[in-house]
Protein: ABC transporter ATP-binding protein
Organism: Acuticoccus sediminis
Amino acid sequence: MAELVVSGLVRAFDDVRAVDGIDFTVRDGEFLTLLGPSGCGKSTTLAAVAGLDRPDEGRISLGGTVFFDAASGVFVPPERREIGLVFQSYALWPHLTVRQNLEFPLKLRRIGRAERARRIEDALGLVEMTRYADRYPHALSGGQQQRVALARTLVYRPGLLLLDEPLSNLDAKLRERARTWLRHLQSQVGVTTVYVTHDQAEALALSDRIAVMNGGKIVQLADPRTIYDHPSDAFIADFIGSSNFLCGTVLGSDGGTVRVDLGERLELNAPSPRPLTPGTRVRVSVRPEQIGLVTPSDANGANVFAVEILERTFLGAHNTLEVQAGESRFRVECRAVPEGNHIHVHIPENAGIVFPQAADN
Ligand code: ADP
C-alpha cells in the first residue's frame, strides 16, 4: 500500500515559515492536489516529499517506509525514494529520441533489454505517444513533450507521482484536454499522486481531494464539491471559483439562518454555519451563478433586490452582469441579458455563507 503520510512538517527560510506545521495523508491510489496562491508553500512541501529539500521538523513516510523523520534524524536521499517527479519544464534530454528518453531511467535501474522494451511500449501506449517513439523532443509540441515526460516517469513504476504545475506551459485549449487525459491516465495506472497548482479550475477538475494552502498552512482539506460548496473561510470562498462578498450587520438569527442588514433598508437571509449575535459585522459570500433574475411580478418576496446594471460582459456560454443594490455591488450570471438597466434579482435563502468579518483578517 503506497499511502503517503506527512505530519508536523515545518520548513523555514530565514524568518519565513514557508511550511508551517502541516499534516496530510494521501491514500493509496488517490489524487490529492495542493492548491493555493503563489508563495503559500506548495512547492516547498512537494520538494520535502521528493527529498530535494530537508525540512526542519516533521515526518514523511510512504507505504510504511520512513523517508524523513526529524526526531530520529532519518533522511532518505531522493534517488532512493523511487518517486516520479514532473515539473512544468519537461527537461527531456534533447539529444535522445522519445524511446531513448524512456529507456535511460530503466538502464540506470539495470532492467534487462526485453523488460525495458516492454515497459517502454506500455508507457508510450498509456500516454498515446507510440507513433512518436523515434522522434527527437524538438520535433514534438509542448503537450507531446509533457506526455513523454510523464511516460518517462511512469516507466519505472514509481510508488508515488509528484506533479508540480505540469500543465502550466500549455495553452488554454490544450491544457483543458491534457487535464481530462491526465485524470484518466492517473486512475488507469492507480498511482498515488500529489499535484501542485495555483489554478483552482484545474484542482476542481482533477482531484479526489484538495488541500487548500495559505501562508504555509493547510486551511481546508476535502473533496472538490465540499471545498466549492462549503468553503471553511472567506479566503477559500474567494480563492475557489468566484464569489460576491456582501458586507452587513446581523439583525437576528433563526435556526441555521441569519438576517443581515446590508444598509439602505436591504435585508438578506442567509445560512450561517454558527449562531451570530445581533450587531456582528459579517461578510456574506454568494456565488454569481446562485443569483437569479426575477420578473417584476415576483419583486416583493424575501431576498429580492431591485438592482441597477452597471456593466454587461458577454462570455459565450453566459453573461455576467455587474449590478448595484444600495451600497452593495455584486456579479450575477445569466444566460440571456435582460433589457433595461433596472431589474430585480433573487438570492435564494440557502445560497451564500455568512462569515464574521474578524475571522477573515
Ligand atoms: P508556492 O509553491 O506555493 O508558490 P513556495 O513553496 O515556493 O510557494 O514558497 C513558499 C515561501 O517560501 C515563499 O515565501 C518563498 O519565497 C519562500 N522560499 C521558498 N524557497 C525558498 C528558498 N530556497 N530560500 C528562501 N525562501 C524560499
Observations:
- The chain has eight helices and 21 strands.
